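User
Class, as today's exercise, I want you to study this protein, comparing sequence with structure tokens, and judge whether sequence predicts the tokens.
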Amino acid sequence: MVSGQVFHELEVKAAANKVWEIYGNAQELGKLVVNNLKGSIQKIEVVEGDGGVGTLIEFHFAPDGEFKFKSHKEKYTKVDNEKRVKEVEVIEGGYLELGFTLYRVRFEIIEKDEGCSIIKSTIEYDLKDDSVHNLPAVTLDPLAAIALAVQNQVTKN
């Protein structure tokens, strides 16, 4: 088993609560992701839930995009509005088809000072030894693009 963790951080000139208004809202974040990653993600559906723990989200990926699969489902396993932390795990399809036994994404909005915050996006994974050739599928590029899109939205408003 190969396990690992990678992360990306982006400093944003906006209050942490303002940034969390987007990351903490499943519908708002979903729209922003689809609008900013059109070449990779075709559609995001909330299958079940209201954005809290247990919410199921299905991603439909573009056929000619960077992902090697058509879709996957994620489940919100942690939503802490006070600490501004959200964790999701792939529970069906996608990375699991590539030999990952765990693929977890964590978003943390860290307050640096009153008008500045940090978006920290982390991927944690476990990958079967016989699937190690799929390790390059672990990429922070989409999470960095999402963070940049959120930054653009909160700083223009």
Q: What stands out?
A: Strands lie at 2-12, 41-48, 56-61, 71-80, 85-93, 100-113, 116-127. The mean pLDDT is 93. The longest strand covers residues 100-113. The longest helix spans residues 141-156.
